[in-house]
Amino acid sequence: MALSIINSIVSWILKKRIHQIELFIKYPHEVQNELLMNLVQRSKYTEVGKKYDFSSILTYQQFADRVPVSSYEDLEPLFERSRKGENNVFWPEPIKFFAKSSGTTNAKSKFIPVSTDALENCHYKAGKDMLCLYLNNNEDSQLFTGKSLRLGGSKQLYEDNNTIFGDLSAILIDNLPFWAELSSTPSNKVSLMNEWTEKMQVIVKETKNENVTSLLGVPSWLLVLLNNVLQETGKENLLEVWPNAEVYFHGGISFEPYKEQYKKMFPKDNFRYYENYNASEGFFAIQDRNNADDMLLMLDYGIFYEFIPMDTFGTSNQKTVSLADVQLHKSYAVVITTNSGLWRYLIGDTVRFTSLDPYRIKITGRTKHHINVFGEELMIENTDKAIAKTTEEFKVSVVEYTVAPVFMQGKEKGAHEWMIEFKQNPDDMNAFAKRLDENIQSINSDYEAKRYNNMTLNELILNVAKPNLFHLWLSKKDKLGGQNKIPRLSNDRIYLEQLKELNK
Q1: How far apart are CA 344 and CA 64, in angstroms?
Q2: Is the pLDDT of residue 231 over 90?
């Protein structure tokens, strides 16, 4: 009875937020423009604010005309100064936290500033909104009669020059109010453990006897944990372990390759799946309807949105449009200005709008080819660098290559499968594959984390292409010519399977 009362009270408190969400749904452009002017005025005395004369900016167009669209590499020198203790560089308040992630072209990791404002009014606010929207759609939910099983990153937090850096999920967990831990499992202490093998064992022991009603985490990581729970308990499915489980909140990577495996683990028709779209740079969108495959763009988190149509992206005709000018079913690169001092920052994701009233989106990919099936964020820059390093070590050269994921099946781990055409083959192909895998890990910390003890990813699989295989493949597609390039990385196996068929 007590748990039921608590569930009703907490649900009522969270659902009060729905009226504010309805407000930005009704007045999206007004909310966004007011937000932008607020960010600009707050930052007018920062170094960036003085450089672009924020004091005189009164309209979006003036802002867009003065401030350039920037990548991480463009802004990294400012971030580094802030990490070394300088204040008022790009944001008026001291930046204490930096979220560490990989994917940059010139470093193993990048460090994204996370202000106190962003922690409270973006990330934590979004967490509550995720629950608010779910509860609003599911009046009979008993979410708070049990606990939420959360699986965050394993990286430790480090302090340097009075700033703290680490995995975003570790920063969020470490700063949650005490009452949030009471409704979550595992404990904060276990969640922040760094050694994954030990951590997995402890999480299984700590959670298998809890009354888990919801789950939160990246699909590939969570799948490893859930398989361990089944193995430990000897149960056929997870409803035998947690009979009151009712929803899985997922994000970070595409859920599509994992959906059927999760359905087998939670075999009941009314088990819900809710997607969210968040990153180190901010929390952007949340699924707002049962059984939907798109998400509501959240417009009052201190993030101002702009979009670059992908048909002009990277060309001399590149243009940026505000939310008011986007079109349905068109792919856009996302540009954000945030309450952490990211000014017109290109996050690298592409989206398309499925609805303009309200604004709902689907993630369509990245501005560059990449593989992010398991949260590894493998970029072409990573693989090019790893190939160059490995071929130099083995004194060989490569003509072409492409990489695709090997999706998880049941308890089988995932992997990356390569097709490489060598000019001359290495003497020891197994040694080459092993060294290539090690070099990728040294370049990309997210891939390294997924490969640790084969936790999520097994060692890469290497196929050796027969001479002129890629030329033959392009010829069959009528794409021979200097402007046609081999797709280096792909989130699906279409290109690789075609090449393997031709390689027989």
Answers
A1: 8
A2: yes
